[in-house]
Specification:
2 copies of one chain form a homodimer. Chain A has 9 helices and 12 strands. In chain A, the strands form 3 sheets. A 4-stranded antiparallel sheet of chain A has the order 1-8-3-6. Chain A has a 4-stranded antiparallel sheet with strand order 2-7-4-5. A 4-stranded antiparallel sheet of chain A has the order 9-10-12-11. At the A-B interface, strand 5 and helix 5 of A face strand 5 and helix 5 of B. The first copy, chain A, binds a DNA duplex through helix 8.
Chain lengths: 251, 251
DNA sequence: CGGAAGTTTGACTCTCATCAAAGTAAGTGG
DNA sequence: CCACTTACTTTGATGAGAGTCAAACTTCCG
């Protein structure tokens, strides 16, 4: 393992990803270093930057080190639907290796630190490290599971349930990459409009639903920060089970 | 290419899949025959059979030769959300190679003819035929695109738009595997309840919306059969663009 | 301090859900 | 081939959840 300062830094950078993967596969040093080698191009996106837009040609795959990203679509009248959120440890534009052009907006939701891995080196990596390829395909499949579960929410759950469900999901995913503090408190860099666009309801109704959850003592909101006061009940009302995330039992 | 009767049959069986893939990659004889070799176990499912259920261990991957399947989820009060439909040429349980257990219901929606490919041979095939692996990963990624687009529908489109959009999508997908007849007419083995569970609206409202489309001269419905009388307007009102399906221009 | 961004509340409206029930077509067994 | 069951479709009436419009309020930030 690389031990000099730069190397150590890189290791920390990819740590979130491998923390997630470690539940799924045996992460070997060979694997981490093979991955680390392609992580040379550290990039920064400003809040709001488009990483790709529909129709754009993919140029690279990204590993988020810090910050949040969204994948979203728009209707012609400007309404936005957020498909999912990407958090540290998540990979963006994984299907750049498969499709020429993007079909969704991928956007930096906060300031983002990431590694940009050009498509060619990325493909080569997958070919040379089949184990790693499987692990990364796993993360892509997990992403589809998240989208499917959201589809169930939008199709068959009430606004209140959707909100509670999303909060439980975000909490669980942040937990795995160790971004939840004591008392189920975590940074949530989303405005109520962002939440609305993810939940498929209006911003105003989102506000009412959240207010109600606060009044009921289920959550506590602060500036960019969320605390789930009654995780058990939140999971009950939203029927949240983390099965669809396929995290290993102990994480 | 195999030319005896049995061989020809197999070739026809996998034809839908390769017809779809041919737009994406150059389909070689080596590829088709490698695939054909694992397609020995022809299976039949009765209408309504569960192919896998949430929590079940995956046993195989399936290539649909004839019939429709659904992937769906349930809420605890029994409401169903159909995630997507699988048609001839589609692969079921592709992520059996990645996950141990299923998280959704995969169900035969009609009588289904399929090839069951046990996971091990399937994984071996992917390893030996990287080209084919990419092509099949492409179909999986396409599937996620379909789910994402449906999420946009459920989140930000009216019931009328959702219905029109789904019809346009099904039409387009069936077209690629040559299952659309003249005048945009095709077999649609879905009850209005099935449509409702896909569109995320009630069955009764689905009926009203469809009736209205019929009255407006946009569609014509018969027993298990659908005709899109005014495809252009259907696409307009639902803002349908087939970009997200990533089909090649000419197909 | 002033403006911008985001949150909150109230009033009103509308789409869609629910309940109830009749109508229609398909399938089965006598 | 008819009676009967079952599955599916259609219509009406009513109500609830969520959307929209308008406006005040709060917080942040240069």
């Amino acid at each position: 393992m690389v031990t000099d300062t730069a190397g150590k830094q890189l290791n920390i950078m990819t740590e979130y990803l491998f923390r997630k993967l470690s539940g799924m596969i045996t992460v070997t040093d060979v694997m981490t270093s093979a991955f680390t080698i392609v992580c040379t191009d550290k990039v920064k996106f400003a809040k709001g930057d488009y990483i790709v837009r529909p129709g754009d040609k993919f140029k690279a795959v990204y590993l988020i080190v810090d910050g949040w990203a969204t994948r979203s679509k728009l209707t012609s009248n400007g309404a936005r639907q957020i498909i999912n959120f990407a958090i540290p440890g998540d990979i963006l534009c994984f299907n750049a290796a498969l499709f020429e052009t993007a079909e969704v907006f991928v956007q930096a939701h906060t300031v983002i630190d990431a590694f940009a891995i050009p498509i060619r080196p990325f493909s080569d990596l997958l070919n040379k490290q089949p184990q790693l390829a499987v692990a990364l395909a796993w993360t892509a499949a997990q992403e589809e599971g998240v989208v499917s579960e959201r589809l169930l929410s939008l199709g068959r759950r009430s606004a209140r349930q959707r909100a509670a469900h999303l909060l439980c999901e975000v909490h669980r995913r942040l937990q795995v990459v160790d971004l939840v503090r004591a008392e189920a408190q975590f940074q949530l860099p989303l405005t109520q409009e962002d939440l609305a666009d993810s939940l498929g309801i209006s911003m105003i109704h989102t506000n009412r639903v959240l207010r109600e959850l606060v009044r009921g003592g289920l959550i506590a909101m602060e500036r960019n920060s969320m605390k789930l006061l009654d995780l058990k009940r939140l999971r009950e009302i939203s029927e949240f089970s983390d099965d669809y995330l396929h995290f290993p039992a102990g994480s």
